Each structure stands twice: as C-alpha cells, then as structure tokens.
Amino acid sequence: MANRILAILFSSLLFAFLLPSISFADSGETTISGLVTEKGSPVKDAQVIVVCNKTTENTITNLKGIYEVVFKENKCPMGSTVSVSASYKGESGDNEKKINCQTNIINIALVNVPQVPEFNAITDTGALIMGGAVFLAVRKREVSGQKV
C-alpha cells in the first residue's frame, strides 16, 4: 500500500513539473530579435521593419541596439522567410533569414551608401543629347518633305 501511495505521489509530482514546460513549449508565437550596429557599435533608436508572410511589424531599437518583435505563430510559422530592414539618420541595412524555431536572431549592420552626383549629371546629359538628336532627325525629315 505504501509503495502504491509513493508511486501516485511521484507520478503527481512529475506531472505537476512537466505540465508547465509542455504549455510553454507550444506558446503559439514566433519571436524575431537582433542587434543593429553601425561600424560595430550598437545603434539606439533605429527604425526596424520586420516582414514575415506579408505581415509587417515595426519597432525601434533599445539603448543597447536590440530590437524584438513577436508574431502569432499562424502569421509567421517555422520555415517562413523573414526580412528585416533598419534605418537611422540616412543609413540603412537589411537581412533575410529562413526561420527554424520560435526564437530567431537576425542582426543588421547599417551602412551609408551615398549617391554619386556625377552619375546623375552624366545620365541627364546623355538623355539631353539623345533627345536633341532625335528632334533634329525628325525635323530634318519634315524640312526635306519626307513623312515621319
């Protein structure tokens, strides 16, 4: 009789300790977090956009440069591809990862890619020259009596 009571007591305690871990294991959420850096240093207050299966979550980084968003598991299940982009004072960066668990880390490095002003001037000049050449060719045909 004593052995049976001990067996029931042991089973009850085992069940009591396992039940919370079973319920936490299937929380129904997918967490995406990471560190946003610039030249190796954390960036606070960076704007972060996280997209998973056309569902978008926005957040900002904390004082340590860390962001975190939580999706319902049905919106972002395991096997989904998550895209994360961050920006801060004209610098930006992005990263993409296929998630494989409920808690995923996707870090981002911000970079400053300046526009080359000379490139715009070159393309504008080329377009102007080509447009002028086409205009003159059409005008020459009109003056000589040829139909366009």
Brief rundown of the structure:
The chain is of the alpha+beta class. The protein folds into two domains: 27-110, Immunoglobulins (Immunoglobulin-like, Sandwich); 115-148. The protein is built from two helices and nine strands.
Report on the architecture of this protein.
The chain has 148 residues and is an alpha+beta fold. The chain has helices at residues 2-25, 117-143, and strands at residues 29-38, 41-42, 47-52, 55-60, 66-72, 81-88, 91-98, 103-105, 108-110. The chain has 2 domains: 27-110, Immunoglobulins (Immunoglobulin-like); 115-148. It contains 2 helices and 9 strands. Strand 1 and strand 2 form a beta hairpin. The termini are far apart. The relative contact order is 0.14. Mean pLDDT is 80; it is low at 19-25.
SSE topology:
Elements: H1 2-25, E1 29-38, E2 41-42, E3 47-52, E4 55-60, E5 66-72, E6 81-88, E7 91-98, E8 103-105, E9 108-110, H2 117-143
Parallel strand pairs: 1-8, 1-9
Antiparallel strand pairs: 1-2, 1-5, 3-4, 3-6, 6-7
